[in-house]
From TrEMBL:
BP term (GO), one: microtubule cytoskeleton organization
SMART domains: TOG
Highest taxon listed in the record's lineage: Eukaryota
Protein name per Swiss-Prot or TrEMBL: TOG domain-containing protein
Any one of the GO CC terms: cytoplasmic microtubule
GO molecular function per UniProt: microtubule binding
Entry-linked InterPro entries: ARM-like, ARM-type_fold, CLASP_N_dom, TOG
Annotated ranges, domain TOG: 242-485
Gene3D superfamilies in alphabetical order: Leucine-rich Repeat Variant (1.25.10.10)
Source organism: Denticeps clupeoides (denticle herring)
Signal peptide: none
């Protein structure tokens, strides 16, 4: 029997339908070694056939997800690897629909946890824009499913449901989509949940005790771990059923172990160890990005503390690491930017230490260069209102840069976020004594912001000021007139 399954890995994949039917039967085989080998072979088929296997995904995923509820650790690991391969190589929307059909309402909480875990990986892979696009076969099915997962009785499934919810909440159309696809009662629950998540954070991944016990008791399973200081991407022997180390999404046990290792370094009492932890995080973002992305909220909660601590050596190391991390993780950093940004600007952008001040500016520039500027606009405008000193001047100038980048693409978003900032600045301009901190620099930054907005909006800028006080209108007209003269 095993020889027959092995042959399917070497035959012509044009006859995939026959093999899938055969493998589908063998996954249910009562002999665990046969079932495990069939699951592993399915993983290889996902990697080889890719879109060619899309038509069979619903039935195959139902069988695999049901198998993930078994207590046999070898089979659970093989199923996890096969589903990882499906997520990485098959058509994303088809995979999402297959996962929703196969496991979202399963009676076994282990199956629901497995479904939620792989659904999270897939949602973070395709991005919030696509998920919230309003597509009937995607948004209409996924949003109610995520709402259900976020309230699941299983702690592990609930964790991943809330992680998806927090990831999607950064999108500007999130609340509009909630109103369209879920009931008013559920909307209130989800909004409360998102508020709590943004305030207190997502927390650590709940421990999958069954999986963890099994992983510790497998001395001959072929899994290889490196030390916390010289960690390399997780690897395994051929028999363990891993299909591609780079594209592999780590299992729950790997993620839990990783969190313990990296947070242990970042939160060490020895500042040198904390610096090594920051360096290790940069290396992990380059070598095993999926491992970092899978734990991004927990990891960057620990990283944020390094930005806020009193040791300037650690502060500097964290600030210098941020542009590298942002460049490597790109859009995935949008999940944590609202948490990290205040830690960068509140202290370091007014620092008298030139190295730290320069590193903070570089970190902010890295965010602007690598992330969606529309997401950055709100935190930049909020901080520009309430900061003092040179930090306020720098952020006003950065808002001007964001306006130049963003206005041609999303004028309404710019006007909605930036005009309230402009009215605030004009109403508390240096003449009123409120913003005396930087004198001419402050006036110059406000004038530059007016000039940029006037360039893009033209007479509409003056029209928008009609609802403001006479003093604000007068200040605006003077600045616009002076900029046109120049």
């Amino acid at each position: 029997m095993l020889q027959n399954i092995a042959v399917t890995e070497r035959v012509n994949y044009t006859c995939s339908g026959c093999f899938l039917f055969f493998l589908h039967l063998q996954v249910k085989n009562l002999r665990s070694c046969v079932a495990r080998f069939a699951v592993m072979t399915l993983g290889h088929l996902f990697a080889q056939l890719r879109k060619g296997i899309d038509q069979e995904l619903v039935e195959v995923s139902k069988t695999l997800l049901h198998k993930s509820g078994e207590t046999n650790v070898f089979i659970r690991q093989a199923v996890d690897n096969a589903l990882d391969s499906m997520v990485q190589h098959c058509t994303s929307i088809r995979v999402i629909n297959a996962l929703l059909a196969g496991g979202i309402s399963h009676l076994n909480p282990v199956v629901r946890r497995c479904t939620a875990q792989h659904l999270t990986t897939l949602v973070e892979k395709i991005g919030a824009d696509r998920v919230l696009s309003g597509a009937k076969d995607l948004t209409e099915r996924l949003i109610p499913a995520v709402t259900k997962l976020a309230q699941d009785s299983s702690q592990e499934a609930r964790y991943f449901g809330r992680r998806i919810l927090l990831f999607l909440s950064a999108h500007q159309d999130f609340e509009k989509i909630l109103q369209k696809y879920i009931s008013d009662k559920e909307q209130a629950i989800m909004k409360d949940t998102v508020f709590i998540l943004k305030t207190k954070g997502l927390g650590e991944i709940p421990q999958d005790t069954t999986s963890a016990r099994g992983r510790r008791s497998l001395p001959g399973s072929g899994l290889v771990r490196a030390s916390s200081l010289t960690r390399e991407p997780m690897s395994s022997s051929k028999d363990a059923g891993q299909f591609s180390v780079k594209s592999q999404v780590p299992s729950i046990a790997d993620k839990t172990e990783y969190i313990k290792q990296i947070t242990g370094q970042l939160e060490s009492k020895d500042f040198r160890q904390r610096i090594r932890g920051i360096d290790q995080l940069v290396a992990d973002c380059e070598c095993t990005p999926n491992l970092v992305i899978g734990n991004i909220l927990t990891v960057f909660d620990a990283f944020k503390a390094r930005l806020l601590e009193s040791n300037t050596k650690v502060n500097l190391c964290a600030l210098e690491a941020l542009p590298k991390i942002t460049h490597l993780l790109k859009e995935h950093m949008t999940q944590v930017v609202c948490n990290l940004f205040p830690a960068i600007v509140d202290t370091h952008l007014n620092s008298k230490n030139n190295a730290i001040y320069s590193a903070a500016l570089d970190a902010i520039n890295g965010l602007i260069q690598n992330l969606d500027n529309a997401i950055l606009l709100q935190p930049f405008c909020s901080k520009a209102q309430f900061l003092r000193g040179k930090a306020k001047v720098d952020l006003i100038n950065k808002v001007s840069d964001l306006v130049n980048n963003l206005y041609p693409l999303r004028p309404q978003v710019v006007e909605q976020k930036v005009l309230p900032l402009l009215w605030h600045l004009l109403g508390t301009s240096p003449g009123s004594g409120t913003n005396q901190g930087q004198g001419g620099n402050m006036r110059g930054a406000i004038a530059h912001l007016c000039e940029v907005l006037d360039t893009h909006m033209g007479p509409a800028l003056t029209d928008c000021s009609v609802s403001q006080s006479i003093s604000i209108q007068k200040s605006l007209n003077e600045l616009v007139k002076n900029s046109s003269v120049v």
